[in-house]
Amino acid sequence: MSPEARRDQFIDLGLQMVRDRPLELVSIDAIAEAAGVSRALLFHYFASKQEFHVAIARAQADEMLECTAPDETLGDPLAMLSGSMSAFIDYVSANREAYMAFMRGSSSADPAMREVFDGTRAVMSARILDHAPALGIDVTPVVEMTVQGWISFVEETTISWLTDPVVTRDELLGVITASLPALASVVQHP
User: Fold this and answer.
1) At a CB cut-off of 8 Å and minimum separation 6, what does 95 contact?
2) Among 5, 22, 46, 142, which is 20 to 30 Å from 153 by CA?
3) Pfam families from the xrefs (predicted)?
4) Tens of each residue's pLDDT in the chain, 190 residues
5) Which residues of 35-62 are buried (b: 16+ CB within 10 A; e: fewer)?
6) How far apart are CA 152 and CA 136, in angstroms?
7) CA 146 from chain center: how many Å?
């Protein structure tokens, strides 16, 4: 196995494990055992358990960003938003344990993890801001700040829903997708 393929194998095994347990409980020993290699080999690819966990978080973020990429063929930015948010809800529902652990677990305070989270949010924000002009919205610092706040709203609302689903999935989707245009309207026309 090539070094890149071996490293990817370890990350894939880590991704599989975080689907049903918090990241903190994904041990180096469990990964090594699942891969059929020694613990020492895993440390050849990752300097520490923390570095390995960051690699898992980065892979999880990349996976989520890939499945939530706007469908440009829809043409309508609001339809793209709805499609992306629908995919986001489905993704975090399917990866509930990992999402909750990344957002709420002890690793969420780690600076390297924060960098992964912030980078993911920056991509999500850029996707929205890239389509704002098609809706007649000028991208200003206030609009940028509002979009960043909306992303936090989406994360918190989704966590609340995952924890206690008092509304249906479609109701959650409706709240999330309707809130951004409503905020844009207030910001654009105070």
Assistant:
1) 18, 19, 60, 64
2) 22
3) TetR_C_46 (PF21943), TetR_N (PF00440)
4) 788 998 999 999 999 888 877 788 888 889 999 999 988 988 889 999 889 989 999 999 999 999 999 999 998 999 999 999 999 999 999 988 888 877 776 666 788 888 999 999 999 999 999 998 888 888 999 999 999 999 999 999 999 999 999 999 999 999 999 999 888 877 766 5
5) bebeeeebeebbeeeeebbbbbbbbbbe
6) 23
7) 19
Side chain identity, residue 175: V
Which tokens is 5 given? 């393929």
Match 């891969």 to its residue by tokens.
Answer: 35
- Give the position of tokens 């996976």: 63
Residues belonging to the chain:
190
